[in-house]
Design brief:
It contains 12 helices and 11 strands. It is an alpha/beta fold. The longest helix is centred in the N-terminal third of the chain and has 23 residues. It is globular. Belongs to the UPF0065 (bug) family.
Length: about 325
């Protein structure tokens, strides 16, 4: 027996079926953000300046977002491992790169065929701030000023060792060597903490190091600062001259942190994240850590961060060329 439906009934059944299908889709499409833990991928090991700042933000963001905010350290390949981890993630805002100029400007500028394009493969969320770096030497080095160190290095060409734990340090030291006419041995490390350990032990003589982990050692006399890489003196150590004041006005390096996500993130998710990160910058938990790290919080719109990243990529390419560093 064949059941025949009246045309009107067939229309109603079809309509109900379509409505049911629509209702099945709605919960997914209207799913609020965040619906699960948010992951901040950091391109440096635990204990680094970026890791410390990221963990301060994670602590504040978790209750604001109503979900755990986890810090995931993915060090290696000049930050590219962390960048690739994020660009492969779903573009839903639950996986973000708490990155720096290393993976977002320096590493791409140093590669002939970079693993990603920072300007098209990521969604800008917010500019976090600027790092302070010091050029420091081990106390055994007979130099109290930058001029004295340059003279010492020229008298001992090729015998001094410097370490780097990130591409910022690598570019800064290459630029310093080119401008000062010195030749030293580069010892690369996986992260800044490991390089700093060897500097304190005297296995290295020189390093460009971030303020957070180095300032306590400087105050204790375990490291001697020669200059700060900022265009102005640092409030953390106001007695330390800038590179320009110390005799190298051509030296220029900017180290920064920013949050980006995979390409094509929903605008409303980007807006929510930007709003929450901005609010976190006013919280004492973040301000205290930033002050301890001599890290200047900035904040920005997503659009401004995108423009800044483009400016920085061009700037680092020019710096690398001037320092004689060819893309690999």
């Amino acid at each position: 027996m064949t059941l025949r439906l009246h045309p009107l009934r067939r229309l109603c059944v079809a309509g109900l079926a379509g409505l049911a299908a629509g209702l099945c889709v709605l919960p997914v499409a209207a799913q609020p953000f965040p619906s699960k833990p948010v992951r901040l991928v950091v391109p440096f090991p635990p204990g680094s300046a970026t890791d410390t700042v990221a963990r301060a933000f994670a602590q504040v963001l978790a209750p604001a977002l109503g979900q755990p905010v986890l810090v995931d350290n993915k060090a290696g390949a000049d930050g590219a491992l962390a960048g690739q981890e994020v660009l492969r993630a779903p573009a839903d805002g639950h996986t973000l790169l708490f990155g720096t100029n290393s993976p977002l400007a320096v590493a791409p500028a140093m590669k002939k065929t970079p693993p990603y394009d920072p300007l098209t493969d990521f969604t800008p969320v917010i500019d976090i701030g600027r790092y302070t770096f010091f050029l420091v030497v081990h106390p055994s080095v007979p130099a109290n000023t930058l001029a004295e160190f340059i003279a010492h290095a020229k008298a001992h060409q090729g015998t001094l060792n410097y370490g780097t734990g990130n591409t910022t340090g690598q570019v800064a030291m290459a630029q310093f060597a080119a401008l000062s006419g010195t030749r030293m041995t580069h010892v690369p490390y996986k992260g800044e903490p490991q390089a700093l350990t060897d500097l304190l032990a005297g296995r290295l003589q020189l390093m460009v190091v971030s303020a957070g982990p180095s300032v306590p050692h400087i105050r204790e006399g375990k490291l001697r600062p020669l200059a700060v890489t900022l265009p102005v003196r640092s409030a953390a150590l106001p007695q330390v001259p800038t590179m320009a004041e110390a005799g190298l006005p051509q030296f220029s390096i900017t180290s920064w942190a920013a949050v980006v996500g995979p390409a094509r993130m929903p605008a409303e998710v980007v807006e929510r994240l930007n709003r929450e990160f901005t609010a976190a910058m006013a919280r004492p938990e973040v301000l205290t850590v930033a002050e301890r790290q001599a890290f200047a919080l900035t904040g920005s719109s997503p659009a401004r961060l995108g423009a800044f990243m483009r400016e920085q990529l061009d700037s680092y390419r020019a710096t690398l060329k001037a320092a004689g560093i060819e893309p690999e």
